[in-house]
Amino acid sequence: MRRHWLGLRHIAQRLNELHALRPGLSVADAGDTLAVLTNWRAWRTLTVDFGWSWEVAAEWVERTTSLAYWQQPTPGDGFTDPWRRQSVR
Predict the structure, then answer these.
(1) Whole-number pLDDT of residue 86
(2) Is the pLDDT of residue 82 over 50?
(3) Nearest CA among 47, 54, 7, 46 for reference residue 30
(4) What would the mean pLDDT of 60-88 be, rounded to a whole number?
(5) 17, 7, 5, 12: which is closest to 30 by C-alpha?
(6) What DSSP state is assigned to residue 83?
(7) Is the pLDDT assigned to residue 40 strictly greater than 60?
(8) For the chain, how big is the Rg over CA atoms in Å?
(9) Phi-psi region of 67 (alpha: psi -120 to 50; beta: other; left: phi over 0)
(10) Within 10 Å of residue 37's Cβ, how many Cβ atoms?
């Protein structure tokens, strides 16, 4: 678990260097959150305990990570938000 957490802290640091993290979000918080969202226990909760399909769980993790932690494009920059659709559940 520690290697997983440290690896995601490293990824968060690199994303910060690329100015990809949301303003005000620390590298530590981004790394910790990624570690939780990609942990096998969280995955088990989504797929086994909640009964979500693997596809729905994967989309939720991707959407949650994207909306909560990455720098969001500004309107009018040509970006189409892939999550502007109905709930995955």
Answers:
(1) 43
(2) no
(3) 7
(4) 61
(5) 12
(6) T
(7) yes
(8) 14
(9) alpha
(10) 18
